[in-house]
Amino acid sequence: MRKILTNLWKRFFRRKTIFRNMVTLSLFAAIIPVLVVGIGSYLYSASAVQSEVNQSNVRILNNVSSTIDSTLDRLQNNAIQMLLGSFFSSNLVELKSTNYTGFYSGISRELSALINGNKEASDVAVYVPDEGYLISPIYGGRRIEGMGEREALLKELAVDDQLKWVSGPYPSIPSYNDNGVTLVAKLPLLAKQPMGLMFIRIHEELFQNIMKRFISYEGEQMFILDEKGALVTSMGGNDVPHGLFDRVAQKGSEQRFQFAFKGTEYMVTPITSSFNKWQYINMVPIDQLNAKSNGIKLITLVIVLICLVLGALITLWGTRRVYRPIQNLVAYVKDGQTDEVETDEVGFVHKRWAELSSTANDMQQQLSDQLPLIREIFALQLLQGRFLYYSEDQLASMLRRYNVPADKESIVIVIAFDLQSEGKVRFQENDRELIVFAVKNIASELIQSHEMEGIGINLLNDQVAVWLYRDPLQAEDDESDIKQFAERLRLLVSDYLHLQVTIGLSGKSEQISELPELYEEALLAVRSRIIVGGNQVIVHTSGKSHSDMHYRYPLEIETHFENSLQLGDRDEAVRMMDEFAKSMGAAIQKPELIQMSYYRLLTAAIRTAYMLGLDTAQLFGESNEDPYLHIRNISTTYELNAWFKEQLVEPIVAYVHGKQHQEHEQLIAKVVRYMEENYHFDLSLDQCAQICGLSPQYLSKLFKKKKDLSFIEYLTKVRIEKSIELLRTTDLSVSDVAERVGYQMKNFIRVFKKQMGVTPGQFRGSDEEN
């Protein structure tokens, strides 16, 4: 079966470009409409089901809200009518003093009539603070003995509200400790000196019985929250899902959104009561909503698959018939040849041949112009070991592409220069690129004049490398030619530029894979000018045989390790340490080479710490123990890595994080100081972010993290504190105070009341009374 499918693939798709295009186009023409119709049908049906369910949920919530609101409104109106009736409108103080028994019997009679006419109320009670007496037709008369409850009721009597609804338990009244709502009204109503409080209690069972009638789905939950987000009652447990109220407030007028709770995705539909601003929230599991659309999905999928299969078969059959004349034409043109047609069956279009030839010539010229630069980049990557893991065939292909011979002996020369020469400075720091350009040109011209083969390479570090390659037989006869060439090159560059020039000369090798080692030898020779002196040709004399040259110090790991320490990235620095230890496997037979490598890595880490401002006492303690001696006494790379992590990585990373934390603290302090000095202006997060040189998003997150308040919350806090100080210490009007703290009058009153619970005028009045 597999062989048949392979033959069909080769026959209809690999060999016949036109046929393949025809089949592809036909399949697209047949498949895409089916897919579009199928997917569109499914999405439309699923959206229609969800929209229908959402509309149904809105209607349900409106019914629940209307039923509960009408009940509360009716009960409130009946209470107001009773309080404005003849009994409570009379002089209750005089009635109590002249007819004590008639006073309490009258109250009991009125309360009994109210509760008999309003079966929804679970209790109706009147509290007389003079005697601490609570009258209820359900529980009878009783005295409130607790001082805490009596003080709470006196505070309730002192507030400005004549009538209000309170949700949840009302612990000041015995038997009101369960969930529900309580209507609290002053007695008499609208009196300047009320003599008592009336309470009408509704148990949450009334609301739950109403909500039960509208539950339709398994797992459906319904919540009623007050305007502050507190739970009034629910059909889904006693806890409101965390974040649900905030999401409802964020969505605003949107009718639905998705919300995850306890591993289940819900479709949430909220509405707000116009009576008391309660939030009625319905949560239906999405899998229940999708139950209706699953059948539609399955039917749609089956129909689409059947149409796709039929369309594909018909397309292949029809395309094959249409292609047959072209197939016969191709067979005639081939004239019995067995070679496969690699291009389009119609062949090259002759009228385009001149244009294509011209384009090819232009591209070839561009490639020829850029080939020297490309060869230089390729040679630089070869020196840096970028192609060490290529196979021999891959590397040979790359060498052929850039016209570099693979079977010749290679030698690497590195040229370094010093700007100061005999106490005089001819060039400036910004002339280094110009010097490198001149050195590379001199080297290239000298290679040509000596009829040698090689490539001049800009190492991008103010140094130039020359990669020379020659025939091995020629190298045996002219052993000293390379050194003479290097000395000649050094003299030319030094005389032309009047600079001290040092050249490092590597050994030689016939293996292209050993080119990075030769490059490393030349670099080491140049670096040794600090010891042996510069302004000369230094030949690398390591004394190692080529069998020992397989190890190469992992310079790229060292660089990455230093960058990780500078960024405070502990995990990346530790990973680089592990990679460094792995690279030591190539020198397993040379323990002294491993120690030398770790000496070099230690020097890089200490250099990084010094650049960051961290001294050695903070790394190795006050004893100032010699770290190089410590490395010499460690016998395994595992212990070496552990010591590096403890003595170097951890202190440096902690130091970097500390500096970052200190910078963040200073930035936030700067923002806070700016806010406290300019709170009376129209401040914005963008302004403060621009002052700090940060993005608004990053400053917002940083401010929230450091202050536990958002930018707007902290600015509001500062402005309210300043307004309180002005209200207490000046005679300014409320509008003047609002202007001085950066608010418009309307917004100031709203924000002040939200923060302090009273209006600015009420706050000043209460403060003057105290």
UniProtKB/TrEMBL annotation:
<keyword id="KW-0812">Transmembrane</keyword>
<feature type="domain" description="HTH araC/xylS-type">
    <location>
        <begin position="669"/>
        <end position="766"/>
    </location>
</feature>
<keyword id="KW-0472">Membrane</keyword>
<keyword id="KW-0804">Transcription</keyword>
<dbReference type="Pfam" id="PF17853">
    <property type="entry name" value="GGDEF_2"/>
</dbReference>
<dbReference type="InterPro" id="IPR041522">
    <property type="entry name" value="CdaR_GGDEF"/>
</dbReference>
<dbReference type="Pfam" id="PF12833">
    <property type="entry name" value="HTH_18"/>
</dbReference>
<dbReference type="InterPro" id="IPR018060">
    <property type="entry name" value="HTH_AraC"/>
</dbReference>
<keyword id="KW-0238">DNA-binding</keyword>
<feature type="transmembrane region" description="Helical">
    <location>
        <begin position="21"/>
        <end position="44"/>
    </location>
</feature>
<feature type="transmembrane region" description="Helical">
    <location>
        <begin position="298"/>
        <end position="317"/>
    </location>
</feature>
<keyword id="KW-1133">Transmembrane helix</keyword>
<dbReference type="InterPro" id="IPR009057">
    <property type="entry name" value="Homeodomain-like_sf"/>
</dbReference>
<dbReference type="InterPro" id="IPR018062">
    <property type="entry name" value="HTH_AraC-typ_CS"/>
</dbReference>
<protein>
    <submittedName>
        <fullName>HTH-type transcriptional regulator YesS</fullName>
    </submittedName>
</protein>
<keyword id="KW-0805">Transcription regulation</keyword>
